[in-house]
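Pasting as-is:
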Amino acid sequence: MNRFVNTLRVLIFISACSVLIPAGGKAADEKILPAEVLSGTEHLLSLAVPGSGAEFQPERIAGLMDFVTRNKKDGEIFSAGSANGFASSYNEVDVRTRLVDVLKYSFNPAIPWFATSPASLRSTSWQQTEKPWGQLPRLWELFGAGDAPVVIRGMETVENTPDLSTGGYYRYGLHRALVLFTSGPRRTVISISKQADVSDVGRKGFIVGSDDDWTYFYSGEPGLNVTGLGWVKSYMYDSAGLSVYTEAGPGAGLVRIANFKWLRAGWSNINMVQNEHIRQGLVRFARSFKEIMESPRLPAVKTLEADCLKIAGLPEAAMRDRMKSYRRLLAAHGEKLSGGARKNLPEAFWSESYWEGLSREEMQSLLVLETLKEHLGKSPAGGMGSTAVPPSQPPQQ
């Protein structure tokens, strides 16, 4: 009987979704990406497939780069269609900064990648780098070493933030390829990802207050944070992504970031993702990234590196002491929301075993986030006080 009821719930939910847009379907105002762009994405994605032997050929992405760099009409929405059952979307944002600074903050071996993507990623861990590289290099030092493109391949483990629609968050592995090349006056870096396997089961996450505060609670409990769907065992079945970072020209101080994303996720082997869901996620990433990189309060790279090193070196007891402070701040913040903390935070929050069970990685990622928020003038945990490691002083010149 329970299985029948659960199946009925799924069918009702699918029916409700299909009234708007079928899973993976295209909204009426969407445009399919031009054929030359899709051809370019196929070439780039092949670079992240292990053992493919594919080599980067700049001429095969000429149409893609022309599309990325040209001006678009306001309100234009693009997707890659729904081939092979994937939902997809495209988004771009212009950030007033230099490409070298994007690389120093976002692709720095000393700064976790999630630090500049706090609305999208809870944690990231670069696991291995393929030969000839022994480890992830400092990308900004590779430009100017020659005209030949550079390709770096490796493996990464990521965990994302709670989804805007369902509250679900997932942990999964990625095959990653990074491509650096110069075309005319433009220097470009492309980050390519291909999901390695089905994700861990989706767990219930909570956005505490405004998503712009980057304050989340990760319950660890399987399911979705949606009324009537708390029981669902959902998964990210497969995903792929391209992030193109290209500068307007030498010394221009402007970087265009274009993101292509494909995703198949849901439960009972049914893809429940719509193109609009992906687009919301891409806009979410772009908004927080632009806010961080354009902030006048963004600390110097060496300062943020020192902060991350200090956090990584904390004894576990010191991390757990800071978790106690964070817990108090989060509860106080929850009390200010409609209905109070008991309405906005799940039972796991009140459990001592939950806090005692946090891994070092989970505590470390939270402390990095809170320290960055302190630099940027955001209230830690949405409240007063601090759980951050005292910010490092800028190094002496």
